[in-house]
Write a structure and sequence with these properties.
With 422 residues, the protein is α+β, with helices and mostly antiparallel strands. Helices cover 24% and strands 24% of the residues. It contains 8 helices and 17 strands. Strand 16 and strand 17 form a beta hairpin. Helix 6 packs across helix 7 and helix 6 packs across helix 8. The longest helix has 17 residues. It is elongated, with a radius of gyration of 29 Å.
Amino acid sequence: MTEYVLTMPDVGEGVAEAELVEWNVKPGDLVHEDMVLAAVMTDKATVEIPSPVAGVVTWLAVTVGNTVPVKAPLVRIETDVAAAPNGSAPEAEAPAQAMEAPADMTETPPPVETQPSARQTEEAAPAPAAEPHHKPLASPAVRQRADDLDIDLTKVKGTGPDGHITHADLDGFLTVRGRPEHPEQMTPRDSAVEEVKVTGLRRRIAEKMVLSASRIPHITYVEEIDVTDLEDLRATMNGNRRSGQPKLTILPFLMRALVKAVADHPGMNATFDDEKAVVSHYEAVHIGIATQTPAGLTVPVVRHTETLGLWECAEEVARVAEAARTGTAHREELMGSTITISSLGALGGVVSTPIINHPEVAIIGVNKIVTRPVWDGTRFVPRKMMNLSSSFDHRVVDGWDAAVFIQAVKALLEKPALIFIE
């Protein structure tokens, strides 16, 4: 018997380990070359592990949710096995490490009946042959969401290209699954408890939140911004945009305002290595965009925002956010941010306390826009108002400096023409 042991590959520069988030095979499965065996998650991305050989899986080294070091064993595959005519694996021999039966248990016991009953004959009939193993087609993000929701993808019909399962397919499956067949027979389950293991991206998010909240003393500064003129400008620009241009939200304006503001306040476009006690100021402005995805919170990065115009910012935000939501973002698109924007859009609330994206020193939180009466000196007039709730690392950013920085951003947003002045 020839066996191939697949070890954990190098999945990225500087990555020493990854978390196993999915097995696509089990012992006894017949696999072919390049078939995806498993998926692992690093700090920034989910990576699929293909099989370099064909054969039968005989052993899995790791369970889902555990961390695997690079070069550690992952799976063992018996390679000198020919497929049976029906495409399934041939009957496997007993494992070499199995214990031998004691001598007094090897003799065949005497038969109790010489003629089996009709019922026994029916029950002894061989079960139908199992269908060959087919892996449902789905992106890592869809697989992670299905795992989080305890959905068996083999039971979901894919409507995407070549039968790929999409997020919409999961939504449809959940709708059907959540509809009881006989609702009148259902009884309340007051004491029901569901335990969900925290794995994959959700565990990564938890680890980063604990790291940031425990190591960074946050100071949060909230300021209201009159965005009436900005909203008028945005509506005008959207009404005159060219074919193919994305619809402008407030984010591109805020991104351009941040670029101009950090030029005068470089300490905000920075990271802090608290182990080396070194603050790094960056000339390039790489803005992280906190994005909610089906698998959890992800921060894709718009790189070199200082080189982008307003429409280009809008295009890049749309592109990296969509890549994050569909699980197709490249590793370099999920790392290296120097300052982050957090926005919940219409759900933004009045005030929030955003958690800093470690090792950055600042995060800008966008709250919802509301129309409020504002005193203009002679009378109350309706104005569109929005709060910015921003957090800073108080170890390296003083409260005064945080306030001055946000006031600079406020001035640009309230007079949006200043954003376009070089």
